[in-house]
Specification:
The chain is of the alpha/beta class. It is built from eight helices and ten strands. It comes from Kribbella lupini.
Amino acid sequence: MRIGILGNGSMAEALGGQWAKAGHELFVGGRSVERAREVGDRLGVRGGSLQDAAAFGEVVLLAVPAEAAVATVRALELGNSTLIDCTNAITHPGITLAVDAMAETISRYAGQARVVKAFNLAADSVWRRAPLSGQPLGVPICGDDQHALDQVAQLVRDLGCEPVHAGSLERARLLEATAAFAIGIWFGGGDTRGLFPPKDEAF
C-alpha cells in the first residue's frame, strides 16, 4: 500500500518503521518539512509536507497531537483515502476524555476520506517491539467503510497483531474511553490484562 503519514513524532516513526519493513511505500509529512525528511531518512522513505503525504497515501495515518488533529485534517485535501486516527485526547490528572470522540469529530472535517479508529490503545514503544511474544496483540478497529476496515486490518496483521473489528465509527467513542480508562490504571500501577475473563466465560 501507499501510506502517507501526517506527523513526525514517536507514533509516526514507530508505526511507519514497521510498515516500511513490511514492504509498504511510505511518505512522511510534517509542518516542518526538514524534520519530516529526517524521519523519512531514518525509515528509508521520502519526507516532505503534510499535503504531500496526504496526496501520496491511499491510506493516511493521522499521527499528530490530538489538539492539532482537527486543524490538520481541515487544512488538507485527503480525497477518498482511508484515514487512520490513532489519537487520544486525554487530560491529566484523572485521565479523562478531553473532548467528544476524536474519530467522529475528525470525520466531519475529512471530506470523502473514510475514517478508521485504530492503534490508540498502545504507546509507540509497543509498536516498535511488535510482534510481541506469546499470543498476538489484539488491535481494535472501528469504522463504517468495509474496504477501509480491510486495509487497516491488513496493516494490523503486518505488525504481527490481530485485528479486532469493534463496530462502527460511532463506537470509537467507547474505544477512546477505554484508552482513558486503561491509561489511568497503568499510571496507578495496575495491569489491565487481568480485567477480562476468557471469551467462553465472559457472559
